[in-house]
């Protein structure tokens, strides 16, 4: 059955954006299409793109902040381990078998 169907959406809003699937019942078998993405075209999309780039910027900022905290913690832990090491004290044992004059 090489039939074609179309979906037309007028006055698209941001909440309409997403992935749409075509589902059909063919000979008592449910068939699902591969899906179509509804996205904003380049006309009038500067507001939508601004929010995407803003989220990307905030995400990278958070990633850098987490990395800075981890690196600082690691360096502080390394410094504490090196300062807590006490120098080894060597003691000399006097040999009782030696003759002293």
TrEMBL record:
Residues 92-101 have a biased composition (Basic and acidic residues). The keyword Transmembrane applies. The keyword Transmembrane applies. Residues 79-101 are annotated as: Disordered. Keywords: Membrane, Transmembrane, Transmembrane helix. The chain crosses the membrane at residues 51-71. It comes from the Eukaryota. This is Immunoglobulin V-set domain-containing protein. The lineage of its organism: Eukaryota, Metazoa, Chordata, Craniata, Vertebrata.
